[in-house]
């Protein structure tokens, strides 16, 4: 055994030695475990050891003074039964709120680098208030290797992203899976995703978070049906490195790492990339009223952006703001992302409220944020997708101006809004809508950002589902407990004539058409499309546009709707296949047919776009090459008017006919079978509130 992993000291019954300072958290070594933690203001540090699930610790081991180097404490403890222990730290130091120092030696703190967390292994179980240590660090054993996990080579341009809540995807009884609401349950639905055709899944947060946080005055909240309200979405971080234990069917046995890795491996086997929604903008510790869990007691003024009197700046809207451009925090975030890609083979990250990552330590926006630059150029993240939600709750909105370094893509909020306005028939949006349909080059310079920068979406977890977008004029968030004051009021929605559920056949028919319109536009737009899980079979949240606290039928996908709305699912499926067949949508080939530009704008007359305020008809011609080198022409026509219009189509070489591929006015055959597509030469009729797509391959 090497000399540097042999014990040199004894404390009580424990053999110990000075540890490795460059390691973070807990690391298994031959014969022992290395424990390391940083704190700039600590005067002392103790390692606290518990048996699994024990109320009281069985050992407290202080770090001797020579076990500290700079601001890092490191110690190796030998002969530990590390599979059956939990650990934390007690840190002592100054207490001066105005200067940001709030050390409290009575608190046992979670390791910020913990790779596995226990203590809350079952979803929604209320914490035991008599438990002195709620979230407990565990030593992770990395014996589930992903060496045979095949690399996914799908280019970012060719992704079709599917945003899903891990629990809500299978928690409803209609899901039919054995282990509902878990990583294992999600595996059972992979054949469904494969059939649909998506090639990337973007999970809402799956690291350890506190779902029991949604309280008022420390009182558990319930809705009118008796459902307990929780922090269901997961934007309430506890530990950035650890997968959520209660999302694992085997979580109570501390097998969450294995179960999640198995899910990722199975997704990759099916050529589906995995993107994680990460929340490096705040933590569950909240403001001065919140608990000590980890960061507050370790180094409050390093981990959080504080005001001149020690108060918490709240650019996240959640009580505190992570101090992302502090060098210590910056390095932790980088180490965290490296951990997820190296240990779990994660393919990309979507950064919640990413504008906070560009704020200075005083809260001001930076022109060249070190963290964003560091992530963009990190060699281990070179092939990793970086997606920014380019705004925050402090009023910073950076869609199109987010510091990208040629690497970052963005959730395109302008795409969502402009498409909704135009589809609804609002005046004055034809030009903006056309820009969104053709890649938002007015926002993202393709010479610098390429054709992948815009993540296009009409709906996401935050807001109405697609069915609700055309079923409600107003939000209906009464069950959230805030008297319907939470959630945005500006939904750019339209109920098609009657609010909410209806038996009116004509209204239901129109709603289904509007869903098809939105789907056709999304999947025929240049940029990377993102679909909200359940939109493909008209899942509803019953008008709730802020279902963050609803762990019930409001948020869970109702799989019985898949059979009811089978034609919508088949339409999505055909659209996705159509998109994959035509590289013109991803602009992966810059070559175009002779005498035809890659993108051109048209109206009811070809080559004559109507820029007037009252225009409700947009036509776009996309050209390029098929994968076998033939000329490919796609003509997209959108009519948001409530009357039909006569169209003249642009002429093709040698008077070649167009084939009508999509007509959303058709209820069941909106996507026309290849052998049934009619020839169209020069004239077509576009029905009211409809989308037509023509194709010609020469």
Automatic annotation (TrEMBL):
Q: Which InterPro entries match?
A: GH (IPR017853), GH13_cat_dom (IPR006047), Glyco_hydro_13_N (IPR004193), Glyco_hydro_b (IPR013780), Glycogen_debranch_GlgX (IPR011837), Ig-like_fold (IPR013783), Ig_E-set (IPR014756)
- One GO term (biological process): glycogen catabolic process
* Class of this enzyme: hydrolase
Q: Does the keyword Hydrolase apply?
A: yes
Question: Pfam families given for it?
Answer: Alpha-amylase (PF00128), CBM_48 (PF02922)
Q: Hydrolase as a keyword? A: yes
Q: What is its EC number?
A: 3.2.1.-
Listed A to Z, the keywords are: Glycosidase, Hydrolase
The UniProt entry, under CDD domains, shows:
AmyAc_Glg_debranch, E_set_GDE_N
**What residue stretches are annotated with the Glycosyl hydrolase family 13 catalytic domain?**
163-579
- Source superkingdom: Bacteria
- Entry GO MF terms: amylo-alpha-1,6-glucosidase activity
PANTHER family with a match to the protein in the record: GLYCOGEN DEBRANCHING ENZYME (PTHR43002)
**Member of which family?**
Belongs to the glycosyl hydrolase 13 family.
Which named protein is this? Glycogen debranching enzyme
Species classification: Bacteria, Bacillati, Bacillota, Negativicutes, Selenomonadales
């Amino acid at each position: 055994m090497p000399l540097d992993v042999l014990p040199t000291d004894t404390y009580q019954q424990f053999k110990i030695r000075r540890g490795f300072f460059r390691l973070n958290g807990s690391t298994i070594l031959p014969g022992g475990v290395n424990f390391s933690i940083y704190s700039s203001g600590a005067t002392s540090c103790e390692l606290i050891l518990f048996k699994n699930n024990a109320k009281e610790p069985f050992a407290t081991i202080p770090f001797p003074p020579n076990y500290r180097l700079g601001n890092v404490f490191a110690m190796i403890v030998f002969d530990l039964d590390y599979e059956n222990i939990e650990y934390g730290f007690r840190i002592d130091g100054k207490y001066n709120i105005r200067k940001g120092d709030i050390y409290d030696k009575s608190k046992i703190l979670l390791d910020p680098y913990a790779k596995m967390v226990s203590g809350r292994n079952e979803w929604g179980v209320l914490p035991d208030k008599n438990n002195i240590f709620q979230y407990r660090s565990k030593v992770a054993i990395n014996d589930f290797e992903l060496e045979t996990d095949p690399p996914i080579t799908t280019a970012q341009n060719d992704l079709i992203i599917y945003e899903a809540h891990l629990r809500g995807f299978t928690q409803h009884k209609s899901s039919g899976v054995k282990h509902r609401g878990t990583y294992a349950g999600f595996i059972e639905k992979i054949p469904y995703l494969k059939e649909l055709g998506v090639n990337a899944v973007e999970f809402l947060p799956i690291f350890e978070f506190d779902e029991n946080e949604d309280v008022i005055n420390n009182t558990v909240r319930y809705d009118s049906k008796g459902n307990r309200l929780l922090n269901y979405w997961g934007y309430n971080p506890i530990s950035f490195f650890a997968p959520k234990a209660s999302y694992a069917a085997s979580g109570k046995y501390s097998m969450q790492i294995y179960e999640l890795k198995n899910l990722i491996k199975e997704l990759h086997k099916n050529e589906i990339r995995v993107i994680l929604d990460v929340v490096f903008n705040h933590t569950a510790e909240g403001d001065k009223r919140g608990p000590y869990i980890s960061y507050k007691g370790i180094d409050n003024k390093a981990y959080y952006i504080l005001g001149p009197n020690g108060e918490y700046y709240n650019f996240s809207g959640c009580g505190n703001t992570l101090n992302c451009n502090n060098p210590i925090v910056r390095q932790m975030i980088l180490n965290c992302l490296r951990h997820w890609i190296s240990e779990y083979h994660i393919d990309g990250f979507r950064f919640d409220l990413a504008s906070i990552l560009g704020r200075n330590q005083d809260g001001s926006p930076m022109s060249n944020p070190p963290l964003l630059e560091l992530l963009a150029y990190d060699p281990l993240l070179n092939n990793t997708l970086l997606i920014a939600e380019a705004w925050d709750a402090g009023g910073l909105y950076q869609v199109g101006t987010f510091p990208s370094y040629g690497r970052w893509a963005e959730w395109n909020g302008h795409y969502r809004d402009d498409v909704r306005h135009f589809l609804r028939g609002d005046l004055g949006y034809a030009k903006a809508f056309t820009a969104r349909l053709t890649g938002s080059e007015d926002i993202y310079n393709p010479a610098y950002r390429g054709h992948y920068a815009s993540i296009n979406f009409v709906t996401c977890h935050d807001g109405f589902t697609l069915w609700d977008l055309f079923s409600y004029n107003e939000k209906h968030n009464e069950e959230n407990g805030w008297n319907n004051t939470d959630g945005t009021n500006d939904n750019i929605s339209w109920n098609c004539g009657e609010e909410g559920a209806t038996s009116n056949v004509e209204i239901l028919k129109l709603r289904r058409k509007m869903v098809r319109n939105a789907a056709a536009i999304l999947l025929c737009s240049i940029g990377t499309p993102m679909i909200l899980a359940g939109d493909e079979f008209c899942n509803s949240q019953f008008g709730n546009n802020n279902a963050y606290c609803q762990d019930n039928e409001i948020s869970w996908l109702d799989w019985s709707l898949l059979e009811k709305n089978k034609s919508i699912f088949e339409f999505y499926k055909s659209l996705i296949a159509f998109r994959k067949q035509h590289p013109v949508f991803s602009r992966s080939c810059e070559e175009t047919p002779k005498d035809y530009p890659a993108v051109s704008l048209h109206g009811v007359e070809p080559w004559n776009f109507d820029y007037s305020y009252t225009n409700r008809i947009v036509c776009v011609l996309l050209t390029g090459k098929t994968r076998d080198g033939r000329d490919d022409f796609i003509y997209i026509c959108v009519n948001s008017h409530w009357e039909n219009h006569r169209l003249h189509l642009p002429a093709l070489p040698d008077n070649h006919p167009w084939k009508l591929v999509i007509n959303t006015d058709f209820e069941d055959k909106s996507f026309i079978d290849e052998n049934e597509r009619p020839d169209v030469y020069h004239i077509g009729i576009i029905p009211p509130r409809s989308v037509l797509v023509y194709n010609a391959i020469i």
